[in-house]
Amino acid sequence: MPLMDYFTSKKENPIILGISLTHQLMRKYFNTVLLAALAVACSPKEQDASIDYTTLSDAERLEVAKEIAHETIIVDGHVDLPYRMKVGGFTLQREVLDVSVRTPDGNFDFPRAKEGGLDAPFMSIYIPAGLQQTPGSSKALADSLILMTERLAETFPDQFAMAYSPSDVETNFTAGKVSLPMGMENGSALEDDINNVAYFQERGIRYITLTHGKANLIGDSSYDTVRLYNGLSEYGEKVVAEMNRVGIMVDLSHVSDDTFKDALAITKVPVIASHSSVRKFTPDFERNMSDELIQAMAKNGGVMMINFGGTFIDSAYAAGSGKAREHLVNYMAENNMSRGDSAFKAYASEYMAANNPFPTVQRVADHIDHVKNLVGIDYVGLGSDFDGVGDSLPTGLKDVSMYPNLIAELLKRGYSREEIEKICYKNVFRVWQAVEDYAVSQKG
Ligand SMILES: [Zn+2]
Predict the structure, then answer these.
(1) How far apart are CA 109 and CA 387, in angstroms?
(2) Is the pLDDT of residue 17 over 60?
(3) What is the pTM of this model?
(4) 114 CA to middle of ligand 1, Å?
(5) What is the CA(4)–ligand 1 centre distance, in A?
(6) How far is the CA of 436 from the centre of ligand 1 (A)?
(7) Contact 358, 317 (CB under 8 A)
(8) Longest Cα pair distance anywhere in the chain, in angstroms?
(9) SS3 for 72?
(10) How far is the centre of ligand 1, averaged over its atoms, from the C-alpha of 441 (Å)?
């Protein structure tokens, strides 16, 4: 078994779990912990079920959530740091935006990742659809963002490390480093050459989001009003098969429903949606997944990683944010202000709080609940879209330091530690490993 032996691992061991609770909690729940320790010969699941986190106070539960966040690997399916670094000036020559230290802007940096227990944010190698007009430019940008991500790991080797497999993530986790696995957002970087699939696998890309906001050579996009193929193109069908062959996860976030179904029909291995939420809460928003697609993905053994963005999780917020933006743009013009003015910033945050309050961390948990209730706990993960959805993030989940708030909310709803571990990493590791194993089997 290439993954860690879960049963004997520290994170699964009921005795260690008991000891890792704070002293205060241990005294208070001594009997429970003692029972748990006695139950060591039984399965970890039985022991886990005997700890009732729902009876704790909110403050106590948050302490437990922080412990879990730090003892468990947390994988995030989508963090837009590379593009933020490109815009913010982390170039191959110099580091202007230094995320090894706390940064005033953005949602990700090393200190905050450590606070939140984040271990493996998939670095989004994001290629804007606009570049699709200019052949060659998408691949060139992908190459430069990959170099930039590698450069981040090389520049700060004590904090960051590249990761190309679940076992790499485990090694880095043990060493206290934040892993930088890479996913490519937009298959446009493959250009019109199928050989580029293998090329990007060798460059370290471990998932490819087939499209971004517009149809590309591979297939149709959910955001695009134009449907070129009503699903995957012929080239797109070959791309999916080639991704299976070389060991790149097929990411179905952003694609149209028809592309989604076509890809599921072709793939030989489980797929992911690296940053998509549940459409039930945002009717008509094709970018999120319908119950039908969630069920189809579960049948495939895949995992959908929930996007935290306000417009992804709450349709009332999404509707309000359009109106609020319009008001603020008008206000800015009428008062001769610019976006960066502190007076404007203050007005905007006051106006938003009064007229279009952010969703909360509970809303994200609602999405996880929905997937769990519909198809089970094995098919859901986290794909925040941090550094990609900016100001819309929910209260309590504003940056990578705040995963414990979500874990605490899940504990409050009766989720077991085992279920939380599945959400945090075991589900996506299962898919990632299956994809790697399939690729190895194809080489023989
Ligand atoms: Zn995206």
Answers:
(1) 10
(2) no
(3) 0.87
(4) 24
(5) 31
(6) 24
(7) yes
(8) 71
(9) coil
(10) 31
